[in-house]
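Re: your question about Phenylalanine--tRNA ligase alpha subunit

S., sorry for the slow reply, the queue was backed up all week. Below is exactly what I fed in.
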Amino acid sequence: MEETLRSLQQEAIEKVNEAQDLKALNDVRVAYLGKKGPVTEALKGMGKLSAEERPKMGALANEVRGAITETIEAKQAILEKEAVEKKLQSETIDVTLPGRPVKSGNHHPLTMIVEEIEDLFIGMGYTIAEGPEVEKDYYNFEALNLPKGHPARDMQDSFYISEETLLRTHTSPVQARTMELADGKGPIKIICPGKVYRRDTDDATHSHQFTQIEGLVVDEHIRMSDLKGTLNVFAKKMFGEDREIRLRPSFFPFTEPSVEMDISCKICGGEGCRVCKGTGWIEILGAGMVHPNVLEMAGFDSSKYSGFAFGMGPERIAMLKYGIDDIRHYYTNDTRFLKQFSEKE
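Result:
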């Protein structure tokens, strides 16, 4: 048995040295040291040995197994190192070759308009306020002088989640929340950008989801002239210094008096064309003086404080500024459309 074990040891070591890769080496390990290997089979014959020979043969068997295992591990280390070196050589990169250009994205036109408006008003001393898109009926309507059953609620066909919860139909709830947090003390000077939702049929000029930016100023001695001056600066900065503005009487439940603001048509310079429908003016936003009821509900003394508010749609502003003819272009993710704005800043 001793001769058998020594012979197996020598034979196994020769096979290990002949192995050219890790798979062949593993085959040798399984062939000689596996459950059905010759070393294991030889050990099964120890039962036939005398009590004096068994310890000696057991020690020899462990020695043979250990020698084979040690040789396999040494060979494995060599083969693994060779495999790594071979892989490194095959994956060598020539750093002197010109790199592949990486296509970078660009701002969405709506993002560009929103950021431009934010920068403009931040420069005028405003701060940015945000609020939840899933809003309470109280802040979306009641705190803005629109009690339950008010006919003006029909102007904003809403997505209700429950009787008292809905997707906000405008960003005015942010104004109501901000005034409430102010605890009746001014000044307040904010703009509120964000998404809003209304039940509407999507077409070239309407969408069930769109963006709004509203502004609010509350302080002592705020007048209509302050609102007009603010809107005039906004129009000239956004559309050009030669733009003129026009305020027309309108109605909004949360402002009194209320106005619609038009800007002189950039295309025809006020002469009248297809874009402005021959009027020379283009409607751009709604505004007005904050209704005393809204101030009182937020905890402000309307005899001491006054304010103005305005609201605009970045989609419409982007359409006018960039000549976009269909609001659906904003949401269809057509890269041909988006690439047009990669150079606009």
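The chain has a mean pLDDT of 86. The first helix runs from residue 2 to 18.

Happy to talk it through on Thursday.
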